[in-house]
Amino acid sequence: MLKEVVATRYVxxxxxxxxxxxxxxxxxxxxxxxxxxxxxxxxxxxxxEVICGQLARRLGLRVPELVTIQLDPVIGLSEPDQEVQxxxxxxxxxxxxxxxxxxxxxxxxLAYEVDPAEAGRVVWFDAVINNVDRSWRNPNMLVWHGDLxxxxxxxxMIWHHNWPGAQASAAKPYDASDHALAPFGPDIxxxxxxxxxxxxxxxxxxxxxxxxxxxxxxxxGFTSADExxxxxxxxxxxxxxxxxxxxxLGPRTEGRPQQPPGWLAERLAPRPRPAGENTEKSxxxxxxx
Length: 289
Ligand SMILES: Nc1ncnc2c1ncn2[C@@H]1O[C@H](COP(=O)(O)OP(=O)(O)OP(=O)(O)O)[C@@H](O)[C@H]1O
Ligand SMILES: [Mg+2]
Hints:
alpha+beta, 9 helices, five-stranded mixed beta barrel, globular, three-stranded antiparallel sheet
């Protein structure tokens, strides 16, 4: 089970997220990025966040801690933004929280190096969960304390939108040509050799057990939350074993930028020398400057 906390303050919306996640404070004195059950994307997005986020964490990939957050919409009463008010009103009860990483920067593939082993693990994992939302346009990765962190697993496991075709859909290949880590020479074979044997039925059962019942009940075609959990396990288990044979890393896609954005390039550029320092002198061959 995920830790459950109670929201005590709505701090601010994160407008860069399509689902309008918000930063909230909670009764454990933590700060979380909250994803709302009342958001247009629906509660399946939250189920995907839990299953994929917890699976990644159990495999040793960096994903901020996930919690469930009890929300009493009354905490948003003084919120001036109508859209936020409505979202909070529609989301009373249990929502999803992800530990907020203060000071993290959005990953930019032109500004940060990722080694082939790590790139391989991330691409392989995204292939398992069929993540279509880690492209160079929208990397959904953060850099925090110099490390890469994975966020936003809402747009994954497309098969959960059509359970009767789930097995066939989960057998399909994964096209990683657009993946934000495709340019780093991901070592997919090594990642699969290391991680695929860890994806056992037991592990997947444990991960699926972390999804709250109320996000699973009423799923058409199922009689209980546990039946839905089992369906996730049946789709992921065979996919994890063989997907590495069906990952395509095609040519770089059109429109992929060649330069980091100006503000980041500036931040990464070598610092200017202090005024008055003589460049020639400081590079004297005998090093006696
Ligand atoms: N744990 C976190 N710590 C710090 N910032 C975060 C965290 N999670 C998300 N963010 C910030 O909030 C933004 C939106 O989050 P996220 O991508 O999860 O939302 P979304 O609504 O699913 O977005 P999308 O538009 O990609 O579907 C991220 O791009 C990032 O800038
Ligand atoms: Mg996102």
